[in-house]
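Exercise 7. Predict the joint structure of the components listed below.
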Amino acid sequence: MIRRYVGIDVGGTKIAAGVVDPQGRVLSKAESATLPDRPFADVVRDMADCARRAMEMAECSEAQIGAIGIGIPGIAENGTGAVIFCTNLGWHNVPLRKELSQYINKPIYIDNDATVAGYAESVAGVSRGATSSVFLTLGTGVGGGIVINGKPWTGAHGVASELGHLTIVADGIPCTCGKSGCMERYCSATALIRMGRDAARQYPDSAITKMSEGDPEKITGKLVIDCAKEGDAAALGVFKEYARYLAIGINNIISFLDPEIVVLGGGISHAGSFLLEAVRGRIPDFLMFKAMPYCRIELAVLGNQAGLIGAAMVAKSIIEEGEAYASDQDR
Amino acid sequence: MIRRYVGIDVGGTKIAAGVVDPQGRVLSKAESATLPDRPFADVVRDMADCARRAMEMAECSEAQIGAIGIGIPGIAENGTGAVIFCTNLGWHNVPLRKELSQYINKPIYIDNDATVAGYAESVAGVSRGATSSVFLTLGTGVGGGIVINGKPWTGAHGVASELGHLTIVADGIPCTCGKSGCMERYCSATALIRMGRDAARQYPDSAITKMSEGDPEKITGKLVIDCAKEGDAAALGVFKEYARYLAIGINNIISFLDPEIVVLGGGISHAGSFLLEAVRGRIPDFLMFKAMPYCRIELAVLGNQAGLIGAAMVAKSIIEEGEAYASDQDR
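Solution:
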């Protein structure tokens, strides 16, 4: 019997659950609205419901399921199975594993959404086969996922890989986290929008102003990038500045961990080769050792499937580690 | 027969070689001046000579030596045994292993001096037993050593753990490396001296000015710290600012890797508990998750023995890994 794994990706907007095979292929997927304002128990009931539906769609019995993985936009403690902190969902110290176990009696593991998405890319995506990789989600915020020796790295206390909150401009722009000058304030979609709005004010004749009909609220990351692709000088200036900060952030990753590959995901990564070429072109300016080789920089390929694939694969990795340990003890 | 290991620590000023036991205890030590302006081959001959003398002092035969480790202030490639880059010694692409092999026919491994010093602390020093640790040398520059899963981490291309060259102030103070705003420019002894000289100019009545007899050249890191310990307001201001930047740098380490322990070494660490308390007190201001536990922050304990202990222990770790792999293949 080939084992299957259930991955559940819980975001502020929706819950997605899927049955995933050992190679990281999605066999089925069921979704539901998160509606994070309702009680925790109701959200978990719908997580279980999505998982059940996905199992039915894949004609997969509970006996076939090796484990369940959950990706959350926050921090969990796998020792107790509790979610410590999950701002988007309003969860603080909630017993997620215990609550979900009432519906499905399988090993359950919980991890950060960027960590599991990065792991997904290293199992079934662009960083497949890499021993070490770093994943950056460039969205509303900047999330990070680290893979070391082929395994997700969450640190000694579970607070690792918060790469969006590395200080790159001490005493810089205040961050939502309470600190100042975090990478997220310069490399997120939010940052690109802020820079785009500044440029629109400064250059009323720019394409950014025209495309947004003079309404700053209509300026999105995509709009700025589209204007830059069209060659608008103001938008190009903004985009180059954005790419420069991203290159500074990636160079910090190189000088710290020196992974085999850095993977860019999240909304901004939809700019594709336009982003990739701009960033790759800027990296050498900030390298510590100009003559030494360094990581490849690539776009994520799993899109919004990464969360549930990664959650399932993290669960697989943890139970297999346990089994390998047990078999070692027997030997 | 209990195996011994030879550790060689090559700096810009001196060569130190020692015989080290498997627990990281130094059994003997021999030193010699580096005189880096002379030919590479002459420096290597003296490295071999120091190693021989140390072996004689410890009454240790060549047969007892498991391997030789070398710590260099630069970057090496263990595949070829070449030193790629070692500014202080003026070495570029020199065949260090091959050259030293003419004198002693043993497995030879080469690694960065901060990496091996950090590993030494994790084998026989303050971070002993920690699965993950980060070591910072606060000297003329800022060096970094990373231990992950009990092993030194040098990255996929050997350029990891250059923590002194993480950008913490984008477009900040120009660095000797060619970049700007590197952590080294704010957290090294050199930075403390610069800040002390600025303060002496600004506050001519300060103890810094008096102790240095009005000569900026006489202002050292120790002088600034001594004045701060005595309660001089200008020196205290400088020291607090220094500790604040160091706290920002350490928080970047926490948000990236979240190690069990961060170890402070190098000249500035001789300020002892005065430094430790100032830094520990500042960390919470920059934490991403205020309520979560995080790494201990401690002073290095091995002092200038760390280099040769670490070099020897890195060599031990690599040959044992090879033997474990070979025995696995036999099984």
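Discussion. The two ends of chain A are 24 Å apart (CA to CA).
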